[in-house]
Amino acid sequence: MNADKVLDAKGLACPMPIVRTKKAIAELESGQVLEIHATDKGAKNDLTAWAKSGGHELFQDLEENGVFKFWIKKG
């Protein structure tokens, strides 16, 4: 999966993954993709809700060795 920017939010607890995601996605153009790596178990629900409320598209997520990876396309 190709991303325009990768955000490392591993080791951060809620709400920091969302705070960092907001900042990172603001630096992207509409249609570009942000890849987020997080270890907070709540990140999936948080990022899904945040993307939907912000008009962005969370189009893929997976867990790999305790790291949750998300790909969000900026709306």
Give the arrangement of secondary structure elements.
Layout: E1 5-9, H1 16-26, E2 33-38, H2 43-54, E3 57-64, E4 67-73
Shape: globular
Spans of at least 5 consecutive residues whose pLDDT stays below 50 are none
CATH architecture tag: 2-Layer Sandwich
- The run of helices and strands is EHEHEE
Number of strands: 4
Top CATH class: Alpha Beta
At CATH level 3, the topology is Translation Initiation Factor IF3
How much of the sequence lies in strands comes to 25-35%
Characterize the quaternary organization of these chains: single chain
Please list the strands of the largest sheet in the order they lie side by side. 1-2-4-3
What do the pLDDT scores average to?
A: 95
Radius of gyration: 11 Å
Domain count: 1
- Largest sheet entry: 4 strands, mixed
Query: Number of helix segments?
Result: 2
Percent range of helical residues: 25-40%
Q: Would you kindly provide a brief summary of this structure?
A:
The protein is built from 2 helices and 4 strands. It has helices at 16-26, 43-54; strands at 5-9, 33-38, 57-64, 67-73.
